[in-house]
Amino acid sequence: MARDSEMVVRNRQAAEAGDPVAQFNLGNMYRLGYQVARDSALAVQWLTKSARQGNAEALQVLQRLAADGVDVVLPVEDPPPVGLPVPELDTDPLFVGEDFTDPELLRPAAEAGDAAAQVALGNAHRDRLSVPGSFAEALKWYGRAAEQGDASGQFALGVMYDRGYGVAADIVRARAWYHMAAQQGHADAQYNLGNIFNQGRGGKADAAVAAQWYGKAAAQGEAAACFALATLYETGRGVERDEARAVELYALAAEQGEPEAQFNLANMLRQGRGAEADAGEAASLYRRAAEQNLAAAQLNFGLMLAGGVGVAKDPAAAAGWFRRAAEQGDHAAAYMLAVVLLDGRGVARDAAEAIRWLNSAAEQGDPRAQYRLGMLLEQGQDLPRDATSAAGWYLRAAEQGDARAQYDLALMFEAGDGVEHDEAEAARWLRAAAEQGDALAQYNLGVKYATGHGVEHDDVEAHFWLSLAAASDQSAVIDASRRGVEALAERLPPPDLAKSELRLRERLAEQPS
Questions:
Q1: For 55, which DSSP code?
Q2: CB 150 within 8 A of CB 115
Q3: What is 95-139 written as a DSSP string?
Q4: pLDDT in tens, 222-256
Q5: Is residue 271 within 8 Å of 264, Cβ to Cβ?
Q6: pLDDT tens for residues 170-186?
Q7: CA–CA separation, 225 vs 189, rounded Å?
């Protein structure tokens, strides 16, 4: 599960509230790629906000970036030459941990052996990304606290070795320090230790042991641990599968604002797994996760709005959520946005933009987008007709198992349209679609076996596939299929006819009622 670290979340929240220290810290994180993806534009944005509030260090960093060729617009007025401001705190500054920024005020107590001050000093050094040697200092003070048996120091040291901050990454040492802290009841250490066993880092994966550590952290209300343990109960990894327990754990995490838990809980409630189906609550949970910018939730909430499931039908709002998810790179949302733009559902019809989103989704491998793009190209709708390109998109979708694409590709091989005429290839793709229950493909495949076009003549196969098509709800082929079945039944030897009919009964019994 992709999660921002506590430090990133804390600094982002404070930065957005206007705190210049947090803005400086967040800008440096983006500049260095520390706990976030490196992003020069975001680094400049936050450093500039900090500099405009009088932070001299932020201005100095911006000046260095500008000298290195980064696109920076420096504030018009230089701020006064002051250091980073220290926030006012309600608690004793020696014991405020990660919320404190000036290491020097912590040093006397830390040097006197106070473990809490040592951890806080380590945190302060760790957060001072612009200071050379800050990680080394953090390691030293965490180590001093950890050696005294302080769980927070042990956990922090585990993180440093786990992620390679200031040292070579060493999962064995990280695991050892996490274990010491976890045994003392440190919830974050228990969660991280669960991750190590779940992912098999530093040894063989063991979901059962992971579940035990997740369980200890979850019992303390740790949202991430509740989520992780819920996924194990939902899938039956490391524990006996228990969807009701998964729902309980997802709910605990969801109540704390965990978007992935809100999304998974919504899925289970929508499907009635682990609890009574509740489309309204599912829609509410999707919305909560969507508002936290979870693309999958934005897509699903959009789908519920589009269909009026669990919420009042609102095609315009649905289109808006599809767009938000698509802009994050969700290919399924890009496809849905393209569909509503093509159909003009909730938005003005815009074929040009729709095709851009179809291309985006198709290039990301979405078979529905590939098929729809192929169809537009084959039919010359909203695009110049291009049978060769159409066949190419059909092929990409067909190879992913899209039955419509398999059928249409077969017809193109049959006609030699956009591809070379090839009866055998046509038959191959017809069979692929027919096996998935496409009645048109079943009918055409039956005809091929009856006539021997592209396949060896085989009346038993012909009878079977035509019988399947006749049993479908596809009115376009039912009558013709029945006539073919009747004609074949008259000339098939009784044993061959019985063989086909038995196979037909078995196939129909496998189909969902």
A1: -
A2: yes
A3: G-GGG---HHHHHHHHHTT-HHHHHHHHHHHHH-TTSTTHHHHHH
A4: 999 999 999 999 999 999 999 999 999 999 999 99
A5: no
A6: 999 999 999 999 999 99
A7: 10
